[in-house]
Amino acid sequence: MAVPSLPGMRSEQWDGKTIGRWAGCLDGADAVLNLAGESIGGRRWTPAQKDRILRSRVDATIAVCEGIRQAGRKPATLVSASAVGIYGPVDQGDVPEDHPRGNTFLADVVDRWETAAREAEKSGVRVVLVRIGVVLGRGGALKRMMVPFRMFVGGPVGSGNQWFPWIHIDDLVNVLTMALKDAGLSGPINAVAPHTVTMREFSRELGRALHRPSWISLPGFVLRAALGEMAGMLLTGQKVIPSVLGKRGFDFKYPRLPEALADLAR
């Protein structure tokens, strides 16, 4: 895949799991931002796909941390992507960063992912683990969710009562930037908007933004038949709150869903 060229940009090829010439870029770098990982929603969760999801995150992060360890002048900071999936399904109550981890496949993936990233702390590096919710942008998950609404068959998935932690992509970029720059930040931070909604509320607001109805519910058993185990991440959720960001005074550009969707649906 062609890599766009930007002023001052240098690109290196990487297999996502081993140390190579790319590791030289870490020597003398101010900070490292690690976003590597196979899409969790790209295809059905066969055993092989689940292994790809896990290995693409853990192996890549192990390699990054080893590159940091080998660097002559180590970066001061590693900001590593993580996910709210670590909490598993939580039906009731707020979920801040100190909430116990869940007991699902995704919770195990994220736990091992974060453990791998924390190895950089042994090299004296500040590590920030950005636990990301559903990112709303002009592509990705939102683009796929818009399709049934544009065809006038949109609506909530499952009961509609499950929590849907989300964040506008502009706010996510600002969270990542803050994590890179704020030397007082370390450990996990929830990258989600402060006003979490249920799946039913999300579907209603998406329909409004697209001027489409939101009345056809997709039953959970249909989703499980189509997606297998992967359906669980759509049929369950958690009311994740950005506790750390709130304490740091982070200013969300899109704290509420209607404004976020109005921007993205244009």
Task: Write a brief structural summary.
The protein has 266 residues and is an alpha/beta fold. Helix content is 37%, strand content 14%.
Can you characterise this structure?
This protein is of the alpha/beta class. α1 (47-70) links the parallel β1 and β2. The longest helix has 24 residues, at 47-70. The protein contains nine helices and ten strands. The protein starts with 30 loop residues before the first strand and ends with a helix.
What is the fold's blueprint, element by element?
Layout: E1 31-34, H1 47-70, E2 77-83, E3 94-95, H2 105-117, E4 126-132, E5 134-136, H3 140-150, E6 163-164, E7 166-168, H4 169-181, E8 187-191, E9 197-198, H5 199-210, H6 220-227, H7 232-235, E10 239-240, H8 243-247, H9 257-264
Helix pairs in contact: 1-2, 5-9
Keywords, separated by commas or semicolons:
266 residues; 9 helices; alpha/beta; two-stranded parallel ribbon; four-stranded parallel β-sheet; Rossmann fold; 10 strands; 37% helix; 14% strand
Query: What's the overall average pLDDT, rounded?
Result: 93
Poorly predicted runs are: none
CATH topology: Rossmann fold
The number of distinct β-strands equals: 10
- The CATH homologous superfamily name equals NAD(P)-binding Rossmann-like Domain
Strand order within the widest beta sheet: 1-2-4-8
Strand count, sense and closure of the main sheet? 4 strands, parallel
Strand content: 5-15%
